[in-house]
User: What shape does this take?
Amino acid sequence: MRLGVLFSGGKDSVFACYRAMQTDEVAVLITLVSGNEDSYMFHTPNISRAGLLAQAMRLPLLSWPTRGVEEEELADLRDALEEASRRWKLDGVVTGAIESVYQASRVQRICRDLDLWCFNPLWQVHQGDYLRLLLSAGFRVIVTGVFAYPLDRSWLGAEITEERIRLLEDLQRRYRINPAGEGGELETLVIDGPTFYQSVEIRHASTTYHNYRGHYLIEEAALVDRPGTRDVDHAYQCDIDARPGGSA
Assistant: This one.
């Protein structure tokens, strides 16, 4: 099957893409760029870096704007999926949904209307086991946003490690947070993994933090060759602006 992946560059969309690649063909990554950092539907921290990750994965990226107005953004999602389906002849769409019925049900409804299969390979996964699976598969993941007590500034920019996973599981027991951030507690960015031909090197970043809400803003990043891999074509083009009137 030819699939499009709803893609933010965060761990869930990247890992869902990895799972889809094991059985099917991933034809395109689809990123909704929201003008509302508190979007109900879409990941927003460092969303502008999705194109860099798509380049690292050597996959085309369809970038689609939305104002991020609740419920109205679903019309933008439908337009993006319809355009991706038309251009890449898709059979289905992959999401990184784990527990969010709000998100999963809305994507499923749109896919049904467009006659597309909706594939949710992470649905109801045990979150602690899932985080360890990310590490064992070779993914490197950093925290780019925290939005809940008791996550403090020290998490911003930190890489997910076994020690961090144990801390998250302890916070789950004590404060009932979702260790994988499915309740909106944290956001992430993948900087390397088995689907990457190059790694993401963060060269400059800044943090903002107040009252258990913080962002790790990546201001400069580049792709670097992974040890033991051949040089890649640095002129590879992955970004496609599909806004009305945009270039294809």
About this structure: The chain has one domain: 2-231.
